[in-house]
Every structure is written in C-alpha cells, then in structure tokens.
Amino acid sequence: MIKTVKLEVAILPVSAMTVAKNSEATAEVNVMAESDSIIIPPCDLWSDEPPLESDRHRDQIELLLACLKWWWRERSDFYATGNLTIYFSPEHITTRDFRGPDFFVVLGTENRPRKSWVVWAEQGKYPNVIIELLSNSTAKVDKGLKKILYQDTFRTPEYFWFHPDTLDFQGFRLMGGQYQPLDPNTQGWLWSQQLELFLGVHNSQLRFFSGDQQLVPTPDERAQAAQQQAQAERQQRELAEKRVEELLARLKELGDESDA
What we know:
Layout: H1 18-33, H2 55-71, E1 78-82, E2 86-87, H3 92-95, E3 103-107, E4 117-118, E5 129-133, H4 139-143, H5 145-154, E6 158-162, E7 169-175, E8 178-181, E9 190-192, E10 197-202, E11 205-209, H6 219-259
Parallel strand pairs: 2-4, 5-6
Antiparallel strand pairs: 1-3, 3-5, 6-7, 7-8, 9-10, 10-11
C-alpha cells in the first residue's frame, strides 16, 4: 500500500532569520522528492485573484510596473508583477484562502513570465517589496491581517500601502522582526532601500523617484520628453539660422550704402 503524507509548510517564529525560513521552504520540497510515496505539490499554478476594485487601481498597478521595468530595463535579476497570487503553503491550493498583493518585487531571481509566484518552486523566496492599493472594502485587511502576514510569515523587508482615492500613503521597514514606519522627506516621499528609489504621490498617483529626486518616467513620458527636446532643439536651430540670415542681410545693406 502506498502511504500518502500531507505536507504543511512550517511557519517559523518572528525572531527566525529570513535565510532559515527560505531554507526550510525549499528543504520540504527536497524531502518530498526523495520518495515516490509522497505527493509533490504542483509548481505550475495559475493565479487566482479577484477583479481589481476600480480602473484607478488597475491603472496604478500598470503605472508602477511600466516605470520600474523601464528604470531597470538593463537588469534581469528581478521579478515585478501585480495582482498575482503568492502560494506559500500547499494548503492554499485547496483552501484558496489567500489573495496575492496588488504589487510586489522579488530581487535576485530570474526575470521571466509566471502564472503565479510559488514559493517552494522559487528557492523559498518571498517578495522584497510589497505595495497594497487600499479601497474602502480592503483597507482594514491590508492594514491589519496582511501587514501581520507580510511581517511575520513573508518577512518582506518593506511594505507600503496607497489609497488611489484618498491618497492615504504609508510605508514600513522590517527592523528587529517588526515593521517600523518610514519617515517621509520634505516632499512627503518614502525611501525604499530595496529598490533604491523614492515612492511618493505625484498628480494623485503613486510614483517612483530616483535618488536625486527625479521622476521615473513611463516609456510614453520618456518618448514625449524626447520629442519635446528634439522640437526645442529644432526651434533653437531655426532661430539661429534666421539670425544669421538677418545679419547677412544687414551686412549687405551696409555694403550697398558704402558703395553709394
């Protein structure tokens, strides 16, 4: 008779190191693979997320992704996505009791398309940065239950939330096993050590800013700025050419007057 063993991913105490947590998550997969009598949980799982709250929420996620991917366009060691399920325990395959973050970034991993983020298939890696977009129906969970989950289980170094309607914006950094609020700069922006970028509200949207406090543009904004710069340079060139023509015409007039 083949004996079936139910697998549960252990959740370490808050004081445990992140490395130990990741090692244990991957170790369980290795143990499962040692015997044909043990069921190996699937790794190729589809995301199972509900529809976004509004167009503003969808547009905000797409904006963050477009800006970060453009800023890191020469990098291949990160994964950024939005509204995607994170499976961190095989139990969630059947219970379906957890929804993924609205936006998250994992560093030190392969940049490739995924159906979902399956922790035991990703060397035990959890997100380095998570951003939740609040709504009236989700704010309590995002500020409470999910914050505790990201702090105690995920051990995610940085957690931010932003409300697209009220512009409620706050960030936290994991210090001593607990999330501590981040202090804003004079513009109200918060510094992300993980991304090495500021996050701040600009035109009622959450945006990234570089270390020298320049707005990280979208590809469209970058193209528009390049077009405007090219147009300005063309106008300056045309103005310079016109001045040269005027000077030549004036010199010619002076020469004609001298001959007379």
